[in-house]
Amino acid sequence: MAKKKNLGIYHSGLEVYCAEVLKDNRIKFEYERKYTIVEGFNYPSTYYKSVPKNSKLVDKSNSKQLPITYKPDFVLTDHNIIIETKGFVRRNDSFPLRWKIFMKFLVDNGMSHYRLFIPKNKSQVDEIIELIKNDYPKTK
What top-level class would CATH report for the domain 28-40+68-132? Predict the structure, then answer.
């Protein structure tokens, strides 16, 4: 079995590459800034659900539901850019739905001025860097 490469805080080689290229070009970014898309809440009525290691339904009535959050890979606030690196996306992956909900959050919260990029390889990351350097100067 091949030894897995140490990625540090990053989750993929493409994230590592993107972070390195941003740093090399002195482009400031935040990694995995957390956005709360839907606030937590209490469901006030009857709610039973199946849970692991229990053959019976468990009463979760009146339970607190956690918020739904989203953390894009790179947020470049100086350039109003969000980069979400995605290599291979499986056919039944939840990413397209989560991304669409995040885009709706941006629109609903006055953030639709952010330019969004989803590169799937290093050359597309390089393309984004060139756009930033040539077409998308700092906004602040």
Answer: alpha beta
Q: What are residue 69's phi and psi, to 5 degrees? A: -120, 160
Strand 68-70 relative to strand 81-83, pairing = unpaired
pLDDT tens digit sequence for 15-26: 999 999 999 999
58-70 pLDDT tens trace: 999 988 999 999 9
Closest CA to 9 of 96, 18, 70, 88: 18
- CA–CA gap between residue 43 and residue 56 (Å, rounded): 20
The structural domains of the chain, with segments of one domain joined by +, span: 28-40+68-132
pLDDT at 2 > cutoff 90:
no
Helix (H, G, I), strand (E, B) or coil at 60: coil
